[in-house]
Design a protein that fits this description.
By secondary structure, the chain is α/β, with parallel strands linked by helices. The chain has 14 helices and 8 strands.
Length: 309
């Protein structure tokens, strides 16, 4: 029966009783975007723009960026797409942006922090994104990676709006931002949780290091408690709060996230149908009960057990 259910997702992300939880794709190239559209994604919850420029020696021109982004956005004409501004970091170095060697690159000048020193690079990227929104007809929002404070969120939103882009958001992937989710949501139009980095920074465990992978488990109750703060902030402000880290791709955890109040889930293409089908098979009240049960546990194994069907 479970297999039959997985086969027939109708393409609209919602619980069995109709509570909407949008199901989006994570993309980094035109091929990814086409695959996400073909898999039934309702939109794009994370377009990692830095993936377009991992091999670029120099900053791409506005015209080149506009064309590259249009190619990714085009399959989503009339649909929502969240474009993330360049997220250069130790794991994704960009030759034209990356800082001098740092002792702790994960804690250094990465993500939005690069833009404080080089706002003109951000300005040119926003100009290109606004152009690509026009060319593609996609409903474009823009968000910043690695935001720590309300001031940073407000600084970014002001620039996005000045570029003529309607919706500005930020990622929540630093514990300080999760603890300020309410105030951050008041300063922007939406947030999206990067659970990969949020786990890394919450557990002080390098996400690229196999030796500490057990700590970076998305079922860790401490991570779920931070996600609850963000879900509560979404409910209090009436603004969207999505998840675009790997946690969103687990069909069972997706129910917990819906129960915590998150409003969209964005994932790699292969997970889209399974997550859509999982949501469609549970009511919101059931999701809320699963969320409450997992929050009351003290380790990931117990959290998984508490969320079993
Ligand atoms: C995350 O940190 O969870 C995220 C979605 O961003 P990235 O994996 O690109 O750092
Ligand atoms: Mg991240």
């Amino acid at each position: 029966a479970a297999v039959a259910q997985l086969a027939d997702w109708n393409g609209t992300g919602a619980t069995a009783d109709g509570h909407r939880v949008k199901v989006y794709g994570n993309v980094g190239s035109p091929a990814d975007a086409q695959a996400a559209a073909d898999a039934g994604a309702e939109g794009v919850g994370l377009f990692r723009t830095e993936f377009c420029y991992l091999d670029a020696a120099d900053e791409p021109t506005v015209a080149d960026q506009r064309a590259a982004y249009t190619a990714v956005l085009s399959p989503f004409r009339g649909k929502p797409v969240i474009v993330r501004t360049l997220d250069a970091g130790a794991d994704k170095p960009l030759a034209f942006l990356s800082p001098e060697a740092e002792p702790n690159p994960a804690l250094g000048v990465r993500g939005l922090r690069v833009a404080f020193d080089r706002p003109e690079v951000l300005g040119r990227q926003l100009e290109a994104i606004a152009g690509a929104a026009e060319d593609s007809g996609a409903e474009v929002s823009v968000m910043a990676p690695m935001v720590a404070t309300v001031e940073e969120a407000a600084w970014f939103a002001e620039r996005v709006r000045a570029a003529g882009i309607a919706r500005a958001g930020v990622m929540i992937e630093i514990p300080a931002a999760a603890l300020s989710a309410r105030e951050i949501l008041e300063a922007v139009d939406f947030v999206s949780v990067g659970t990969n980095d949020l786990a890394q920074y919450t557990f002080a465990a390098d996400r690229q290091l196999g030796a500490v992978a057990k700590l970076n488990d998305p079922w860790q109750p401490a991570l779920l408690r931070l996600l609850k703060l963000i879900g509560d902030a979404a409910k209090a402000t009436g603004k969207p709060a999505g998840v675009c880290g790997e946690a969103a791709a687990d069909p069972r955890l997706a129910l917990v996230l819906a129960g915590l109040g998150l409003t969209s889930l964005s994932m790699n293409v292969p997970a889209i149908r399974a997550v859509g089908a999982s949501l469609a098979a549970a009511t919101l009240a059931e999701c809320e009960a699963l969320a409450e049960a997992t929050l009351a546990t003290s380790n990931p194994t117990a959290a998984r057990t508490a969320a079993r069907p």
